[in-house]
Predict the 3D structure of the following.
Amino acid sequence: MLYADVASTSWPKSQEVKDIINMYLDTLGVTPERSLSQQSKKVTELIEECRHELIEQTGLNSHGTVIFNSGATYSLNECIKGTLKPGDNVITTHLEHNSVLRPIEHLKDIGVSSQLIDVTAGREHTLTHLHPKNTLAR
Ligand SMILES: Cc1ncc(COP(=O)(O)O)c(C=O)c1O
């Protein structure tokens, strides 16, 4: 899984990003695949172009594997809750953002365990806590 948290890690946005957002706000302003209007068709085309570019640039091999979401928290919840199942164990660190730690904590209710590694204790300490049941490392 490739997780690109663009919104919270890139600023200022490039001129190209500003230009396409302004073009969208000035001339389109509709959601994709929502109507038969020319604007909606254009928005759908732009999203498909973006999806295609991402597949090409990242080497992902399937159209259905690129998902756009409204933000990181939503995406992380989808990935974490959609991937882990009862009996799985998650190894992570206390350095993770709340949007990672909270869904992992929530999954304890269905039998997903987790361990927070103290990354300040050194490499050997970290490595001894890793084991093959770590679902997120698959
Ligand atoms: C590393 C990281 N992950 C996730 C988030 C949550 O992002 P969002 O506000 O898009 O849900 C943030 C927010 O700043 C973040 O810094």
The first helix runs from residue 6 to 9. The first strand starts at residue 89 and ends at 93. The chain has a mean pLDDT of 85. The pocket of pyridoxal-5'-phosphate is lined by residues 5, 7-8, 71-73, 97, 99 (CB under 6 Å).
